[in-house]
């Protein structure tokens, strides 16, 4: 894995994030707040075209237990993702990272997919959309299946809008259950370059078509 510390002493900005994602790197904070840029080899991705919801999730989707929204509370999703890791004091989502991604969100390049029960945020995920690539960052849940449903609708949106690449950075059991695979860094860079040549829209009304079908 390629790891390097943040070079400049200025705060992380949305422009830093854009440059990083377009060049196959992303930041994570250490426990002391120091930012490092990562470029894993191999890299984890989830093939979009072959995604199918786990059989265990289908009854949940049919019951429509959750209301699904986009960008209703982007910062809230980020803070919940950070809080989910504070139990072991190893959160990589620092205040600096939250501020930079919220800036990117206001520029229209970072999105959250959220699940609600009775108007209460109970799950969700966030990531970055550039070209035909979506870079998944983190997810959380407060009730069972809250994040799984959000992820399912993320995948449906990506398929519907013609996205080509879903980057999940590292492989783990959480992303593996959604079909994540590992590919060499060189192969990832080629796929990234290709996806950046096209433009796909991750719009806030992307859910409308899905719920009409």
UniProtKB/TrEMBL annotation:
EC number(s) from the headed UniProt entry: 2.3.2.6
InterPro entries per UniProt: Acyl_CoA_acyltransferase, Leu/Phe-tRNA_Trfase, Leu/Phe-tRNA_Trfase_C, Leu/Phe-tRNA_Trfase_N
GO biological process entries: protein catabolic process
Annotated localization: Cytoplasm
Catalytic reactions on record: N-terminal L-arginyl-[protein] + L-leucyl-tRNA(Leu) = N-terminal L-leucyl-L-arginyl-[protein] + tRNA(Leu) + H(+); N-terminal L-lysyl-[protein] + L-leucyl-tRNA(Leu) = N-terminal L-leucyl-L-lysyl-[protein] + tRNA(Leu) + H(+); L-phenylalanyl-tRNA(Phe) + an N-terminal L-alpha-aminoacyl-[protein] = an N-terminal L-phenylalanyl-L-alpha-aminoacyl-[protein] + tRNA(Phe)
SUPFAM superfamilies attached to this UniProt entry: Acyl-CoA N-acyltransferases (Nat)
An MF annotation (GO) of this entry: leucyl-tRNA--protein transferase activity
One cellular component term from this protein's GO annotations in UniProt: cytoplasm
Main location: cytoplasm
Keywords assigned: Acyltransferase, Cytoplasm, Transferase
Pfam families: Leu_Phe_trans (PF03588)
Family stated for the protein in its record: Belongs to the L/F-transferase family.
Free-text function comment from the UniProt entry: Functions in the N-end rule pathway of protein degradation where it conjugates Leu, Phe and, less efficiently, Met from aminoacyl-tRNAs to the N-termini of proteins containing an N-terminal arginine or lysine.
Protein name: Leucyl/phenylalanyl-tRNA--protein transferase
UniProt organism field: Arcicella aurantiaca
Lineage: Bacteria, Pseudomonadati, Bacteroidota, Cytophagia, Cytophagales
Gene name for this UniProt entry: aat
């Amino acid at each position: 894995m390629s790891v390097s510390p943040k070079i400049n002493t200025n705060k992380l900005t949305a422009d830093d994030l854009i440059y990083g994602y377009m060049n196959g790197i992303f930041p994570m904070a250490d426990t002391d707040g120091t930012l490092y840029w990562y470029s894993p080899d191999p890299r984890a991705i989830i093939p979009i075209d072959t995604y199918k919801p786990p059989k265990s999730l289908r009854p949940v989707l049919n019951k429509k237990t959750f209301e699904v929204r986009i960008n209703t509370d982007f910062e809230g999703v980020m803070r919940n993702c950070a809080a989910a890791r504070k139990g072991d004091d190893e959160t990589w989502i620092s205040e600096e990272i939250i501020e930079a991604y919220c800036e990117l969100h206001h520029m229209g390049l970072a999105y959250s997919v959220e699940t609600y029960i009775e108007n209460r945020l109970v799950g969700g995920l966030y990531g970055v959309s550039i070209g035909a690539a979506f870079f998944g960052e983190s997810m959380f849940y407060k009730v069972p299946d809250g994040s799984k449903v959000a992820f399912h609708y993320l995948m449906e949106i990506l398929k519907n809008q013609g996205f080509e690449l879903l980057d999940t950075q590292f492989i783990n059991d959480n992303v593996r259950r959604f079909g994540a695979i590992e590919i060499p860094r060189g192969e990832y860079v080629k796929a990234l370059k290709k996806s950046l040549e096209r433009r796909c829209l991750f719009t806030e009304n992307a859910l409308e078509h899905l719920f009409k079908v």
